[in-house]
Amino acid sequence: MSEIYDAEGQKGLDREVIRMLYEYAELRGTHKSLARYRYAKDAPAAHAIYQKYMDKIDDRYGQMDEADQNSVWYKPTEKAKEYRAYERDMREKMYSEIAERCGEYDRKQKNKDLER
User: How far apart are CA 3 and CA 71, in angstroms?
Assistant: First the structure.
């Protein structure tokens, strides 16, 4: 995480946290530092972003013939390799788009603080 932050800053860190939350982790607790990630991941807008990218991935998978589909995870064909690269790219874009909502949360919080 430190390497990502050093290379890409807060946006890169936010993207990687969102990736973790979608792939293998969950938020627990009520610390205020978690609020921005809950805002980014749990809102209806995030669900819409997720669905948009999953639909693209599913459509691409459905365009392959059965032999290519069956080889995606074991001895992949060229088409299966292309699909996996496409899926990685779409997930990267999805996580980045959802992570942008962390910045939106930060701006809203800053505005609330200024109103006080």
Answer: 34
